[in-house]
Amino acid sequence: MEFDSLVLAAATADLSDEPAARPHADAVEFRMDLAADPLAALDDYDGDLPILATNRDPTEGGEAEGTERERLDVLEAASAHDAVEAIDVELSSLRDSPGATLASAARDRGVRVVASLHDFEGTPPESRLDDLLAAAADHGDVGKAAVTATDPGDALAVLSATHTATARGDRVATMAMGEAGRHTRAVAPLYGSKIGYAPVDPGEATAPGQYDLATLATLVERLGGR
Ligand SMILES: O=C1C[C@@](O)(C(=O)O)C[C@@H](O)[C@@H]1O
């Protein structure tokens, strides 16, 4: 997973979704924090799609339990699996150890790091978004921002910040969560966003406003973002 072009990720807590995802997705985002026994599921995985492993912190919308170290240890164990080609680590964790140590250990194994930040309340002002994306791209192979749009101006700020970051040479992934931001999931790839997330089953969305995978794949392809 090089993230040189769009990676369409089937977001799921259940790796048995992989065969259904295969016709549309480039990867599976495995939401370990939402799975009952994620490391056992990885041991059993025999799908074709590479995995982006995420063990999301509750402060950023996830359900991982335990201490920060325990949460990141699970991610580190995941990164040792052959199928795991990338891990998602929150920017706030990457600024210090143990997150920074995890990232360099993963990179030594050839595993890419997505440095992420999430805002479930709103969209920061565009200049702040620019700074956050620059910091995230600096700490990861891809810098990712998922924020919440409550009006079209928020969605526009996300697209504009995506364009600015890409024009600067940063590899970023962006999406505006929520109804007002939904279209950004289809359009942001045209401005340079390198990851799209969608559930196979629309009833199993991992974030507000997601399209189902088949729909997102069609929209992105029709728009020429892939
Ligand atoms: O961070 C992200 C992006 C996301 O929140 C979205 O809005 O599609 C979905 C999550 O599964 C993923 O980890």
TrEMBL record:
Biological or metabolic pathway of the protein: Metabolic intermediate biosynthesis; chorismate biosynthesis; chorismate from D-erythrose 4-phosphate and phosphoenolpyruvate: step 3/7
Catalytic site: H118 (proton donor/acceptor), K144 (schiff-base intermediate with substrate)
Pfam families, per database record: DHquinase_I
Domain of life of the source: Archaea
InterPro entries named in the record: Aldolase_TIM, DHquinase_I, Type-I_3-dehydroquinase
The keyword Ribonucleoprotein is annotated on this UniProt entry: no
Protein residues bound to 3-dehydroquinate: E29, F30, R31, R56, R185, T206, Q210
One GO-annotated biological process of the protein: amino acid biosynthetic process
Enzyme Commission numbers on file: 4.2.1.10
The keyword Amino-acid biosynthesis is assigned to this record: yes
Keywords: Amino-acid biosynthesis, Aromatic amino acid biosynthesis, Lyase, Schiff base
Gene Ontology MF: a single term: 3-dehydroquinate dehydratase activity
Reactions that this protein is recorded to catalyse: 3-dehydroquinate = 3-dehydroshikimate + H2O
Functional description taken from the UniProt entry: Involved in the third step of the chorismate pathway, which leads to the biosynthesis of aromatic amino acids. Catalyzes the cis-dehydration of 3-dehydroquinate (DHQ) and introduces the first double bond of the aromatic ring to yield 3-dehydroshikimate.
UniProt record similarity statement: Belongs to the type-I 3-dehydroquinase family.
Quaternary structure annotation from Swiss-Prot or TrEMBL: Homodimer.
Descriptive protein name: 3-dehydroquinate dehydratase
Gene: aroD
